[in-house]
Amino acid sequence: MRCPFCGSLETQVKDSRPAGDGSAIRRRRVCPDCGGRFTTFERVQLRELMVLKKSGRRVPFDRDKLMRSLEIALRKRPIEPDRLERMVNGIVRQLESQGESEIASGKIGELVMEGLRALDSVAYVRFASVYRNFREARDFNALVDELAHESGEIPEDELTPPPVKTSPPGRL
Ligand SMILES: [Zn+2]
Predict the structure, then answer these.
(1) Where are the beta strands (DSSP E) in the chain?
(2) How far is ligand 1, taken at its centre, from the CA of residue 28, in Å?
């Protein structure tokens, strides 16, 4: 770990101990070149996730952005923050455990739809009605903006479930 004061690469760990609830390690370090002291934290990151967008661009997966889009879909719904937190954790773990470091943006949308369907039917329909219009041509970021615009403006009794996929008619 490079010394933040003088740039030396020779810093030494003085002690290591669990931090917080044990999900992190706190290390106190000292630099032998300048005497500077600093602290680092080590946390588990199962996988560095990248999102492959429709445009072909890759961006780091943004948990906060996912959380915001769900908060918007769940606005004014009787869902406890803990349950939303658990749902997001579950989605992130599913993404992390896919064995791919790159995720198509549509895959995130699918997992969100599955999670919301289990959590709250109104939020699910709210999300689905917007998501349907976006998944062909646009990406998840645009969806978040659209949700912010839409939510609260559609009376609940006007919401209808998304159409059921039907297979094309067979030939006679
Ligand atoms: Zn130093």
Answers:
(1) 12-19, 24-30, 37-43, 50-52, 58-60, 102-104
(2) 14
**If you measure from the C-alpha of residue 2 to the centroid of ligand 1, how many angstroms do you get, rounded to a whole number?**
8
Instruction: Return the pLDDT at 155.
Output: 42
Residues 3-45 have pLDDT tens digits of: 989 999 888 999 999 876 676 788 999 999 999 999 987 866 6
CA of residue 22 to ligand 1 center, whole Å = 29
Distance from the alpha carbon of residue 26 to the mean position of ligand 1, in angstroms:
19
Cβ proximity of 150 and 126 under 8 Å: yes
What is the model's pTM? 0.53
Read off the tokens for 106.
């549509």
How far, in Å, is the centroid of ligand 1 from the Cα of 32? Answer: 7
Q: Is 70 exceeded by the pLDDT of residue 101? A: yes
Domain ranges of the chain: 11-44, 46-158
